[in-house]
Amino acid sequence: MSAVLRxxxxxxxxxxxxxxxxxxxxxxxxxxxxxxQGPLDDPELPLRLRSMRPAGFAGAEAGDIxxxxxxxxxxxxGKPRQSRPVGFPDVEVGAIxxxxxxx
Length: 103
Description:
Largest sheet: 6 strands, antiparallel
Structural class: mainly beta
Oligomer: single chain
């Protein structure tokens, strides 16, 4: 999906954000944010994301991934406009589901 968005100038990803599910009494949360340094379809990217698991929480599981960046949208007259941020596709980890929200 990222290649299609990039190909049509709809989203040039600049950062990835995701939360970690940490099982503990009372619940805990952690969030990781990294700049995008290359294509999102890089086969090494999932390994890099997993390597950023919070220290001390070997059982932490990655949550949904938020992709942010800039892109082009069309106004009512069909004229292209640059916007930042243009949108945030939210990708569910472990499922084939993608939803988008415009900010």
